[in-house]
Amino acid sequence: MVMSLLLTFFTTFTFNNLYAMPVISPLEGRWDITIDVDGKPAPAWLEVRLSGTKTLVGQFVCVVGSARPVAEIHLKDGKFSFAIPAQWEQGDNDLRVEGTLEGEKISGTLITVDGKAQTWTGVRAPILRRTAAPVWGKPIKLTEGNSMEKWHAEGNHQWIAEKGILSSPKSGANLMTKDKFNDFKLHIEFRIPKGSNSGVYLRGRYEVQVTDSKGMEPALDQMGAIYGFLVPNEMVAKEAGEWNTYDITLIGKLVTVVANGKTVISNQDIPGITGGALDSNEAEPGPLLIQGDHGPVEYRNIIITPAK
C-alpha cells in the first residue's frame, strides 16, 4: 500500500513538473532596435525566449561585437531589464538595458559600461519567409579594371582599384556598393595576409567572416561563419596570402555559404543583424559592404546576381 501511494505521488509529481505548460510572454521573439548615440541612429538586436516554464533568456547584439547571451531577462508589468558583461567596450561595468513593452513595440534606455544613458526604440523583426523560389536576374560584375564607380566609402579612404582587384592596404574605411539588393547570389574572392581580418556584410547587416583561419577549428568568429550566429561545418581556409572564394545565396534570411567549393552553411536562418551592421531595418534591401577597418585585405571577381 505504501509503495503504491509513493508510486502514485511520484508519477503525478513527475508528470506535473515535466509537462507543465509554459507561460508565454508577449516579450518573446526577435526585435530590431535602433539606439540614439549622440543624435545618430545605431543598430542593435534582441532575442527573447522562454527557458523552462517561467525564466526569460535570450541574446543581444549591440553596436559592436557579436551576439551575447543574456542569462535572465526580468519582466514585470510591461517593464523589463537585463545586464550583460562588456565585450569590446572599454569599461568595468556591465552593459544594462531597461525597457518597456507596448504592443508590438519596445523602447527604453541602454546604460553603457562607462555609465552613459542612450535611448532606444525597437520593433518586431520580420521573418522574411519567401513563398516562392526566386527568379534570378542578370549577373552584375562589381569589380572591373581600375574602376570603383559601383562603390562608395565615407570621406577619404584607403581603398585602391587596380586590374580588377579592390585592395585595402591598411585599416581604414569600409566599402559598400552604391546599389542596394534584396535576395541574391554572390560570388566573391578574397586574399588576406597572416593575422588580418575582414568581412562581407550581406545587405549591409549580416557579416560573413573573412579571417586568416587555416588549421583552426570552425568557430563563430572565423572564416565561413555568420559572425556570432552560425558556425561553418568545416574549416576550409587556405594559407594566408592565397585566394579564397565564397559563393553565397541569401533568400530572405536563409543563407547558404559555399567556401572554396565546399558547402559549409546550408540554408540556415540568420537570427538577426551582426555587430557592425549599417542599420537594423531588416525588411529593407541593403548594399553589399566589405570591411576595411580590421587590417589589410584584397577582393576580386565580385559578381552579384539579384532576384527579379
Automatic annotation (TrEMBL):
Gene Ontology molecular functions: hydrolase activity
3-keto-alpha-glucoside-1,2-lyase/3-keto-2-hydroxy-glucal hydratase domain boundaries: 139-304
Domain of life (superkingdom): Bacteria
Pfam families per UniProt: 3keto-disac_hyd
Name of the protein described by the UniProt record: DUF1080 domain-containing protein
Organism in which the protein naturally occurs: Flavobacterium hydrocarbonoxydans
Lineage: Bacteria, Pseudomonadati, Bacteroidota, Flavobacteriia, Flavobacteriales
